[in-house]
Amino acid sequence: MRYQRAEHALKLASLAAAKEFFAGCFADSDLTRESLWVAHLDDQARCLHLSRHQGDEGGAKFPFRQIIGDAAKHGSSGIVLAHNHPSGDSRPSDSDCRATRRLVSAAEALNCRVIDHLIISGEQICSFRQIGLL
What's the pLDDT tens digit per position in 91-128? Predict the structure, then answer.
């Protein structure tokens, strides 16, 4: 796991902004292994905290307790997730959908909203919100 402090108040107020932001995060990553990036946002969609959770060729774990703990610690109003699929297929897997639904439920208890979950695979990016899964 790697934490990164946002030096400037990056605003992720749109899907285009989130895509650009996370494309930069993955630019220096080993794309043969899954990584999960979690951006915690304030009520104006500014990034408060960013963390990275390294997986392997088969997947990345969703550290629910840590994500929810970070949301409580930073007073997050929203969360945007992004992870990559080394397979080349950007469609969400069943486990991606289950994990996202669990996180949505847990975040709601903190009055925090999962704004989107992006899956990046090569040049393809799938948005859970855009395809109606959020």
Answer: 999 999 999 999 999 999 999 999 999 999 988 999 99
**Separation between Cα atoms, residue 17 and residue 1, nearest integer Å:** 24
Amino acid at the residue 131: I
Domains of the chain: 13-41+84-134 (3.40.140.10)
Cβ contacts of 27-35, under 8 Å, gap ≥ 24: 29/84, 31/84, 31/86, 32/57, 32/86, 33/57, 33/86, 34/58, 34/59, 34/60, 34/83, 34/84, 34/85, 34/86, 35/60, 35/83, 35/84
Question: Bridge-partner residues for 119, per DSSP?
Answer: 83, 126
